[in-house]
Write a structure and sequence with these properties.
Length: 477
């Protein structure tokens, strides 16, 4: 009997214990699997680059927080209770929970960095408090934030400055054309071995090495963006030319009918980078180095130099121009009449606006002479070019048959229709004059030793002779 009772109690106790134990276990399981009730909050982006965003937030009361990320343009998708998603902080590498909403991570602390993003693009983050036992997500409220990645782009270009001077075209303008969501503090340019930096979007550089050159731009800071940019096409650099002619100087003195231009020209330097130089004086006068260049008369000329380089063997647009005045103060005295006894004769320079220097010390444009002899004049123009000439003023011949007969042992002459022939029989030169019957000098000739000349003369009566040989009447038929 006791054994049986004991057995009954034991059986009852066992059943009751099993019942209450099961209920207690169920109660404990229910309590631990409760859906979170406090959502994450205070979402914030605390660091941005061109390819990543750092998300921080305050935790709710779930065991962990489930983070998703999507492009802003995509529609939000909620996680489903009971699902456990694979997440990773590399965007698009975790599970797509639907509609391109990607699982990023289940985190305990509200701090993570999401990478593999595209620059200048907006992304939306959602945070759901999650219970790890029941796999329940708090979706009745939404913790969300949207922000964009940084961006940086550049389109470097190079431009030759100016189009009418080799000197200008050697200077190149480099323009970065930067667009960025953050300040760029340093732009580093590298071209033809030359490195220079600036904080501005553009920089002017003088490149002394000729040819086609690619160039590189490095930007600082970069914030994870592409920061090295190469030129899309090279820039042609003309090497260190010095052709720019600058201000208009006085031109050279035209002591002859030619002016020469070459590498040693004192007019303007020619760039040694140009192996063909073409000078244009006007539309009808073109000369190419090293041929002689031509100017045949004084005046103003616009000189234009066009060059071709050794690098492209074509016109580069490398040119310059200047207006130059070429002067020639050379002159000749006109024929003056003779100097009459006791009278004076005025002789003057045929050119005006110059500095004058007569051999008698006078500095005026004209002088009065009272004595027989040679008179010379040197004139100087504003370019300091000098011209000279001389004239012999003789006394008038007597209006008689002859004071002293022409010495035919020294000078012999003969006449024929419209012609006078003169022969110098001596070993020295003589100046022979021809006068009208009233004593006006109309011709003079210098006849060398043993020289014979023939001159056309209008028919009529004349006086011929020289101070050294005497004078004589002649008649030209």
């Amino acid at each position: 009997m006791p054994n049986f009772y004991s057995l009954k109690i034991s059986s009852f106790t066992s059943r009751m214990l099993c019942f209450f134990g099961f209920s207690l276990l169920n109660s404990l399981t229910y309590l631990s699997a409760a859906t979170p009730t406090v959502q994450a909050s205070n979402l914030r982006i605390t660091n941005k680059t061109c390819t990543s965003l750092k998300l921080e937030f305050d935790r709710g009361n779930g065991s962990k927080a489930f983070v998703t990320c999507r492009e802003k343009a995509k529609t939000k998708t909620l996680p489903i209770d009971g699902n456990n998603y694979y997440g990773i902080s590399i965007f698009k590498s975790g599970d797509d929970i639907g509609g391109n909403n990607y699982a990023i991570a289940y985190v305990i602390t509200g701090n993570l960095v999401v990478s593999n993003l595209i620059q200048n693009k907006a992304y939306t983050f959602e945070v759901f408090e999650w219970d790890s036992a029941s796999k329940s997500y708090l979706t009745s409220t939404t913790a969300t934030i949207t922000d964009s990645t940084e961006f940086l782009s550049a389109n470097p270009k190079a431009f030759r400055i100016g189009n009418d001077s080799c000197d200008k075209s050697a200077v190149t303008l480099f323009k970065a054309n930067v667009s960025a969501s953050f300040p760029i503090t340093k732009l580093k340019w590298t071209v033809a071995g030359k490195v220079d930096s600036t904080a501005d979007d553009s920089i002017k550089l003088f490149i002394g090495i000729g040819g086609l050159h690619n160039y590189q731009l490095i930007l600082t800071p970069s914030y994870g963006c592409k920061y090295i940019f190469q030129s899309s096409k090279p820039i042609l650099i003309i090497p260190t030319p010095t052709v720019k002619m600058g201000m208009t100087p006085p031109g050279p003195c035209l002591t002859s009918s030619h002016v020469y231009f070459n590498d040693q020209s004192t007019l303007y330097p020619v760039p040694r980078c140009a192996y063909i130089r073409t000078w244009y004086f006007d539309k009808d006068d073109i000369a190419t180095f090293p041929n002689q260049d031509r100017i045949f008369k004084p005046g103003k000329y616009r000189l234009v130099l066009v060059s071709e380089t050794l690098y492209d063997n074509a016109l580069t647009g490398c040119k310059d121009s200047v207006v130059v005045s070429f002067t020639n103060p050379n002159f000749e005295f006109p024929t003056y009449s003779c100097l009459k006894q006791g009278d004076s004769l005025r002789i003057q320079s045929p050119l005006k606006g110059f500095k004058y220097n007569w051999n008698n010390g006078d500095t005026t444009q004209h002088i009065w002479v009272k004595q027989r002899g040679w008179y010379s004049l040197a004139i100087m123009d504003s370019s300091k070019c000098v011209g000279t000439d001389s004239v012999f003023i003789d006394t008038c011949a007597p209006i008689i048959n002859s004071i002293r007969a022409l010495s035919k042992s020294k000078i012999n002459f003969s006449t024929k229709a419209g012609i006078i022939e003169i022969q110098n029989k001596e070993q020295q030169s003589h100046v022979v004059f021809l006068f009208t019957p009233d004593g006006r000098k109309i011709q003079q000739w210098i006849i060398g030793p043993d020289e014979w000349i023939e001159k056309p003369i209008k028919s009529g009566n004349y006086i011929i002779g020289s101070p050294d040989t005497g004078y004589q009447w002649i008649m030209v038929p």
